[in-house]
Amino acid sequence: MKIGLGIIGCGLIGNKRAKALGSSFKLIACYDASKERADRLAKDHHARCCSSASLLLRDPTIQAVVISTLHDSLAPLTLAAIRAGKHVLVEKPAARNARELLPLLVAAKKERVQVRVGYNHRFHRAFRKTREILDAGKLGSLMMIRARYGHGGRLGYEKEWRADPKRSGGGELIDQGVHLIDLARWFLGDFREVDGFAQTLFWKMPVDDNAFLLLRTARGQTASLHASCTEWKNLFSFEIYGRNGKLHIEGLGGSYGLEKLTWHRMLPQMGPPETKGPPETKAWEFPRADDSWEVEMNEFAKDIRLHRTPKPGLKDGLEALKIVDTIYRKSR
Fold first, then answer.
1. How far is CA 270 from CA 137, 279, 290, 302, in A?
2. Checking DSSP bridges between strand 235-242 and strand 245-250, what pairing results, if any?
3. Contacts with 280 (C-beta within 8 Å, 6 or more apart), sequence order
4. Contacts for 49 with CB less than 8 Å, ≥ 6 apart
5. What is the sign, positive or negative, of the torsion defined by CA atoms of 154, 155, 156, 158?
6. What would the pLDDT profile of 131-159 be if each residue is shown by its tens digit?
7. What are phi and psi for residue 158, nearest 5 degrees?
8. Of 94, 227, 71, the residue nearest 160 (C-alpha)
9. What is the pLDDT of residues 272-292, one digit of tens each?
10. pTM of the shown model
C-alpha cells in the first residue's frame, strides 16, 4: 500500500518532490501560501489543495509530509508535523540555525516519527558510486577533501528572499555551503575544529556571497570548502584524497556541466597518477537526468516502513548548522 503524502510548499522543490514519488507514495494534498501554486500542483497530480498547513496535518490519510518552504518556516512547520504524528522530509538546511532544530529532535523522539533532512546531493549518481568505492576500502584511509560549489546569481538576486537574513538565516554558506558541509561530514565524520569566514564581496546585500571553510576531524583529516555566488560559470567540484589515490566528482548536470567521477589511483612507484587508461585512471560519466530526488524519496519510504533512523536526519542537519553558526559567529 502506498504511503499517503502531503506537500507543504509548492514551489520549485515541492514540484520536484511531487514528480519523484515513485511507487512508494501517493500525493493526497498540498498547501502553499500562494493558492495558485498549490492549485496547480494539486491539479497536476490529482491531489487536493488545502486552505492551511494545519488542515493538511489533521488529515488522517496522510502519514508523511514534505516541507519545502522558505528557511524561516522549515523548523516551525516540521515541528507541527511531528506533533501531528507525521513522518517528515524537510528540505535542507531544515532551519535558520542550530538552535531552531533542537526542539525537533526532542519531539521526533517523543512521537516516534522519522524525520529526514533533504540533502539530495548524497544521492546523485556520482556520489552513490563514490560511496561504493569508499565502502569497499579501495581508496585507503582518507586524508582530506577539497570542494568548491558556486553560481553567479542573476539580475535582482540581492532582492530575493535569500538576501533577507530574517527569512534565509544567511547567504551562500547556508544555501549551497551546507551541501558541501553535509557531504564532507558523510565521508570524514564529525569535525572537531571549525575555522573560516563568510563575506560579501560583490552583491549589495546583508548576507554573505562567499564562504571559506577549513574543517578538521579528531583524526586530523581536513576539509577545505568554498561556496560562492560570484562564480561566473556554474561550478561543482568535490575531491576526496585517500592514501591510494583520489576521487573527483565534477558537475551536477544542467548548467553545472556533465556529472562525472574520475578515479585517479596512485602508482606503486608514486609520482603523478597515469592519465591514460586503466588501471591507474578510471572515469564514469552520468549524462542521464538527475534521479537523486527519486532515490531520496525511496529512502524516505524505507525509513518509514523499516522504522529506521534516517540518514541524513535531524542530527546531521544539526551538526551542519552548528558549523554554519560557528562560521557566522567568527565572521561577525
1. 19, 14, 36, 44
2. antiparallel
3. 264, 265, 267, 273, 274
4. 29, 30, 31, 35, 38, 39, 41, 42
5. positive
6. 999 999 999 999 999 999 999 999 999 99
7. -70, -5
8. 71
9. 655 555 556 799 999 999 999
10. 0.96
Would you call 63 helix, strand, or coil by DSSP? coil
Alpha-carbon distance 31 to 54, whole Å? 9
pLDDT tens, 45-76?
999 999 999 999 999 999 999 999 999 999 99
Residue type (1 letter), 70 = L
Contact status, residue 281 vs residue 274, Cβ threshold 8 Å: yes
pLDDT over 90 (residue 3): yes
Three-state secondary-structure class, residue 135: helix
Q: What is the percentage of the chain residues whose pLDDT exceeds 70? A: 96
**What's the full length of the chain, in residues?**
332
C-alpha distances (whole Å) from 162 to each of 92, 157, 179, 272 are 14, 8, 16, 42
**What SS3 class is residue 257?**
coil
Residue 271 pLDDT grade (very low, low, confident, very high; cuts 50, 70, 90): low
**Contact assessment for residue 118 and residue 95, using Cβ atoms and an 8 Å cutoff:** no
Q: Is 225 exposed, middle or buried (0-12, 13-18, 19+ CB in 10 A)?
A: buried
**Strand ordering across the sheet containing 142-150:** 193-199, 210-216, 222-228, 142-150, 235-242, 245-250, 259-265, 281-286
**Cα 127 to Cα 173: distance, rounded to the nearest angstrom:** 21
Residue labelled with grid coordinates 500542483:
41
Contact criterion met (CB below 8 Å) for 284 and 129 = yes
Cell of 282: 578510471
> CB under 8 Å to 40, separation ≥6 — which residues?
10
| Stretch 202-217: mean pLDDT | 98
